[in-house]
Amino acid sequence: MNKGSKLAMGIAAISLLLVGCGKATSSTSSKESSAALSGKVTAVGSTALQPLAAKAGSNFTAKNSKVNLTVQGGGSGTGLSQVQAGAVSIGDSDIFAEEKDGIKADKLTDHKVAVVGMAPVVNKDTGIKNLKMAQLKQIFTGKITNWKEVGGKDEKIVIINRAQGSGTRATFENAVLKGTDAVKSQEQDSNGAVQKIVATTPGAVSYLAFSYFTNKLQAVSIDNVTPTDNNVETNKWKIWSYEHMYTKGTPDKATTAFLKYMDSKTVQDSLVKDMGYISIHDMKVTKDAKGVVTQN
Amino acid sequence: MEQTNFQLKKQDTQSQEWSKRLHHATRATREDWIGRGISYLCIGVIILVVASMLWFITSKGIATFTQNHVSLWKFLSGTDWSPSQGKIGALPMIVGSFAVTFAAAIVATPFAVGTAIFMTEISPNKGRKFLQPVIELLVGIPSVVYGFIGLAVVVPFMRHLVGGSGFGIISATFVLFVMVLPTITSMTVDSLRAVPRYYKEASLALGATRWQTVSKVILRSATPGILTAVIFGMARAFGEALAVQMVIGNAAVMPKDLISAASTLTSQLTTGIGDTIDGTLPNNALWSLALILLLMSLFFNALVRVIAKRGQLKHER
């Protein structure tokens, strides 16, 4: 195992040598002055958080030109395992580190930077606008297979799931299925793919983050509660999760400054909202890793 | 006395210089050494990279069996793929991969052979002028583009034609058919061109028609080459990830029919790898899928070699 990872590093080193000889020189020049903030920050992980992190990151480096900040996707699992291994400074994740097998959550520090609401979405021709929570559960566990059983058109239900281990799927299943297994079905690996497929496939149902809603698909209310930011903030809408930035040990100055910037009013009050997320400052409730919600 | 001494000395230095020249490498030789050194270094690096990749994938891939103690048989024959709950039956993906591969090869081969015959026997001029560039263009199109066309055109088309969601083995077959067609065609063309001219001449001289010559002589003697072409096409289809993943639907269930969502080894790998943690069972299980892919491509390569060898023997006889 240990040998294996060493070899992997070797391969990576070779490929770096082959590909990016030019890169090595640039980072050395930024270590000169001690007054200005400098260093290298790498944030890797959740694709749901990636657009926000990337935008905030570029705004941050515009002010602190000596900081070399990189934001990458790869998935929540990648983010958590990379930050645990110490390979990156920040691991982006849609889910609590406690929820992921193989991650030692007590070694990591959680920084919640935003909230994302998620809602079931259906193809428009199903004629569904509202579902009961119990019905939704029956659909995703395969007990209801035709839309007419829940008041829609006579049409077969096509379930589109996210990949196993996806943060969005975990959030949805925690809130809706509560421990029962989803029926085996199509799996897509990104919000974008789900958005496109639900919009074009008759009878399709899936779940998406609010920011991916379009007028080509129908977001479904649950028990007559509409999926809006306000309802998430009060926990009337139950399907939501934090966007986490995890760090390990004591982060360096540049990383700390970036995390502080993420929590600042400049980011939370404008950028977060502009990009379709919900500000962490607006939340009237707190959810812990076990899913227990308390009023602030 | 002085003079002769001097001459002797001069002669001595001259002969020393000569022996120096003759005993030491010339510039050309040194260049030769350097060139050889560079080639060996490059080969060494490549061998190192290949060997470490093989070793890395193998060691990661068998961790499922050595660390997580899943039995190999259960992995290969199980039909329940829920890695997060510890169930890793890979049979649905193995069946899915083979199904799309064989289906694509079966559909593509007649078209490829037909095109190749046209390009070599029926109309070599037009073939070279028009079809060659078209086929080369098809090879150059990135697989994500094929996948996107598949998602935007093939999937809705299949939905209207056969019903269901449109995602499934049949859509994947259709996309892969277009992707492996150029590979099979261009290699078939090469093997048809390699058929000795006198075979054709002898056949025509014996009074055979053109069709008889093509079907009974040329195709027959090019069979090993065509089989090699088909296997190369299959190897490409087996390893294709992105385009297949976009149209097959990625449902880790045993494929019941051609029109419901299924998954392949590659599609499961690309969807799952970002959400798993190093060293856990879900991650190791994906590495095991990668190991199967690696072994299969080694198998395809070995098969090509065997066929090529037998083909050579046949020609010499």
From TrEMBL, chain A:
Pfam families: PBP_like_2 (PF12849). Part of the ABC transporter complex PstSACB involved in phosphate import. Belongs to the PstS family. NCBIfam families: ptsS_2 (TIGR02136). SUPFAM superfamilies: Periplasmic binding protein-like II. Residues 32-263 form the PBP domain. It is a lipid-anchor. It is found in: Cell membrane. Coiled coil: none annotated. This is Phosphate-binding protein. GO terms for biological process: phosphate ion transport. It comes from the Bacteria. InterPro entries: PBP_domain, Phos-bd, Phosphate_ABC_transporter. Residues 1-24 form the signal peptide. GO terms for molecular function: phosphate ion binding. One of its GO terms (cellular component) is plasma membrane. Keywords: Cell membrane, Lipoprotein, Membrane, Palmitate, Phosphate transport, Signal, Transport. The complex is composed of two ATP-binding proteins (PstB), two transmembrane proteins (PstC and PstA) and a solute-binding protein (PstS). PROSITE patterns: PROKAR_LIPOPROTEIN. The keyword Repeat does not apply. PANTHER family: PERIPLASMIC PHOSPHATE BINDING COMPONENT OF PHOSPHATE ABC TRANSPORTER, PHOSPHATE-BINDING PROTEIN PSTS 1.
